[in-house]
Amino acid sequence: MDFQLKTLDTARAATEKADALVVLVPESFSSDASDPLSTAVAAARKAGDLESKAGKLLSLYRPAGIAAPRVLLAGAGDGSAGAVRQAVTAAVSGLKALTSVRRIVVVLPAGLSDAPAAVRAAVNAAADASYVFTTTKPKADARRIERVTVGVADTAPVREAFAHASAQVVGVEFAKEWGNRPSNHATPTLLADAARTLGKLPRIKVEVLGPREVAKLGMGSFMAVAQGSEQELRFIVLRYDGASKGEAPVVLVGKGITFDTGGISIKPAGEMDEMKFDMCGAASVLGTFRALAELQPAINVVGLIPAAENMPDGRALKPGDVVTSMSGQTIEVLNTDAEGRLVLCDALTYAERFEPRAVVDIATLTGACVVALGAVRSGLFSSDDALAASLQAAGDTAMDLCWRMPLDDDYADGLKTNFADVANVAGRAGGAVTAAKFLQRFARKYPWAHLDIAGSAWKGGAAKGSTGRPVGLLLQYVVSQVGQPVKPVPAKKVARKAPAKVAKPVVAAKSARNPAT
Ligand code: BES
Ligand code: MN
Ligand code: ZN
Prior knowledge:
By secondary structure, the protein is an alpha/beta fold. 31% of the residues lie in helices and 20% in strands. Strand 15, helix 12 and strand 16 form a beta-alpha-beta unit.
């Protein structure tokens, strides 16, 4: 779908050729003018037929003096970005069912308190409301809307916001596509192929590691998760080089579990299909790179994706097994369903080599986070106050919200075990926090944050589908770091533990899944 920005007042909008005209009418809308649209708004208001409450619609068909055959007057409340989002969502949801609507013009009135935010909200809402997944349902009513023109009184102050939003939409839709694909259409290998397609875009390079390379790196924890699946693991490394070579990058690490059965600690059958979404962290990293290629900001970004399937099998990891992570720390796997942290910990260790300015991991990590925050805000965990503040602010700007959660050391007590340096689960209480405490042990060499997107990455029920979150937050955060000085790494560097001596584990016969044996 194509977006355009255009200078339009209500008088000019009335002459615009389009299949549908959506006119946002906030409480502040002045209908003093005598053009046909203003007159229609004034008359409808007077008759009590037009409510300014966000999301309320009044449809006109072939109104006199207006070029577009369909006009939607859309209440836009206080004119805030949130109200604009609601209004455009309602209007476009109604229009997408009409077979002959291909070109829409959305008119934002003058005098909005934050015009750039309104433009961003309008672009994102129009894209979101008209999105259709067709990869495995080609006969679905595909998106017919081809072009959305956003009309504003003055384009200059909103041009940057418009460019940002248009790039964001491309990234969000890339993330939705891969999030929505079922696991047999989105294996670790296919996910790596998707990443490789991004490598064809300007300034992006992609490298894909397979089982042998990963074994060589000593990623014993990541490999242990993958060993129960017929599907080979992939470790995907993306680079976006927007700044000079020496500039410390932001590293984004995305959980790429292409299907999470729970492994031997198998999940109940109900809604297990939704565990195809367990790679939405990875999809958000891919989507962010897709958007970076559009926007071309002057910053370096690295993306890391450990991709694997979590399956029960004769060779699968078993509760009580002890694995050795790339960091050298040994991990007792008390629950094979806590696999996200097992793949992320090795990626976090790998991230050290980039001497990053910050590392942000994104993961559908815990059901506990869904209980805590629901679908509205992603969970944000960080030991670095400045990084946490930047991410929270980016989420606010992008209307892709998160909420900071605690990381007190006492939460790590439950991870103690007699059999390894750390256990992969604590008790049920505070499950989102104890998961973050586990990750923190592997992320001590750089400013680090963790986003638990278990509640925000997809919707269940009738509207089941990926949301593309938190591409908006991540893109905004990365862009906010352009030109920002890199904070010096704290002097108190935590010494890396010498790899513990552990007895070689018993593994199955040599195979693609076990190349190290
Ligand atoms: N992918 C799940 C988390 C999840 C569950 C996200 C439900 C969204 C909805 C993760 O791998 C997982 O299974 N976590 C366990 C951890 C537990 C075993 C400590 C969970 O949350 O139940
Ligand atoms: Mn799991
Ligand atoms: Zn999982």
